[in-house]
Amino acid sequence: MTSAANSAPLIEKHTIGYVPPQDRHGKVRDLFTLWFGGNIAPLPIVTGALGVQLFHLNLVWGIVAILVGHLVGGVLMALHSAQGPQMGIPQMIQSRAQFGSLGALLVVVIAGVMYIGFFASNIVLAGKSLHGVVETVPVSVGIVIGALGSGIIGIIGYRFIHVLNRIGTWVLGIGIVVGFGYIFSHVQSDDFLTRGGFNLAGWLATVSLAALWQIAFAPYVSDYSRYLPADVKVSSTFWTTYLGSALGSSLSFIFGAVAVLAIPAGMDTMDAVKLATGTLGPLMLVLFLLSVISHNALNLYGAVLSIITLVQTFAYRWIPTAKSRAVLSLLVLAACCVVAVFASADFIGHFVDMVLVLLVLLVVLVPWTAINLIDFYVIHKGDYDIDSIFKIDGGIYGRYNPQALIAYAVGIVVQIPFMNTPLYVGPVSAHINGADLSWLVGLAITSPLYWWLASRDSAYRRRQVSAKLAAGV
């Protein structure tokens, strides 16, 4: 494993293809630093602050909601991560084994849109952070600098991303702990503990935001574990990912809530962070600037892999290379810069809109998560025919898997009465003061339904996969 790691090229040569054993490298503990360091960033800080800003919770109930959401959502996210070493392929490509080669496209498109949205939001935060550190640098210039930094990291790829987050875990971890200490010892508001209160709708909405943060990683989390050796224990991959992501993101969410409550109400979150941390403010902004550039490379990387997956579905003879990934990265980067510059004037308003849109995306991501995990861990137990996954007709998995598509459609429909989104408020949600329980209902219904449907058809598919594996095909 050590020799493989040492011989691994700095610039990643693989895109969506299978990673052969000789190219596997790294250690499972790298997953902790990747997801811990990657989640100490401005965007989760701004998101966490919404629990007290938008949903009017007080500090205690806000923290409880944040922890519940991350601890629950992190389980699903980490279960996806554990698939990487066994499969050796990106998550979105692997979804073809559940939905079929064409049936998986809807989720691929949704994932791509989501990551582009996150990337655009993060480069605005990078621009604002740079402007806060050096006021002579306009926000628009900061946006471009932040995007280029993330682009370089994303183009270099997997190994460099891991290296930066190993460093970031120590630097950012120490930084945020010191920041907490300063804020708690220099509270500038009279209602730090009394502002807001408990309301069921706001509490559940904050839980949903935290769970969404974790589930949003699900479509690409195994992309960062697929280079690990295949004999890595599933439990090791799960726990290092789970602890890193749940701990890092919870700290950032809580930091955002604490910062906005520590100063008088009405200030932008990142401005609140700068004011609440006093003399540490400029240093915190520098750390967050470096963090958002590094973390945002994951969003760009995931968006580009989703685009490659989409194109390769139809151009199945195309073998995407590192050059293809670089070109697509630059195109996405340029488009996002244009959008971000226009959106930066009213970032909080646009960000809240984006969060609400992502709550809608949660409705379609949850059934996918349930289907993927049930298929991997219960139906096929990790045994898949990799060659079929890359065939235009889906090989033994076909172009469409009716069992998965039926369960997916039902999983979306059953959530509708429990939804609370800008587009629609379901009758059940309205009856319980706007609380959104849709994602819980989606998980509870889709999981057993897909298991029942797929298990009736899985005997043939399992025999086919087992035969191919035994023959070494």
Automatic annotation (TrEMBL):
Pfam families named among the record's database cross-references: Transp_cyt_pur
Main location per the UniProt record: membrane
GO cellular component: plasma membrane
Topology of the protein relative to the lipid bilayer: Multi-pass membrane protein
CDD domains noted in UniProt: SLC-NCS1sbd_CobB-like
Keywords (A to Z) from UniProt: Membrane, Transmembrane, Transmembrane helix, Transport
Compartment(s) where it occurs, according to its Swiss-Prot or TrEMBL record: Membrane
InterPro entries xref list: Pur-cyt_permease, Pur-cyt_permease_Fcy2/21/22
Superkingdom of the organism of origin: Bacteria
Transmembrane segments: 32-52, 59-79, 99-125, 137-161, 167-185, 197-221, 241-263, 326-345, 351-371, 405-425, 437-454
GO molecular function terms listed in the Swiss-Prot or TrEMBL record: transmembrane transporter activity
Protein family per UniProt: Belongs to the purine-cytosine permease (2.A.39) family.
Name this protein carries in UniProt: Nucleobase:cation symporter-1, NCS1 family
Organism of origin: Pseudomonas soli
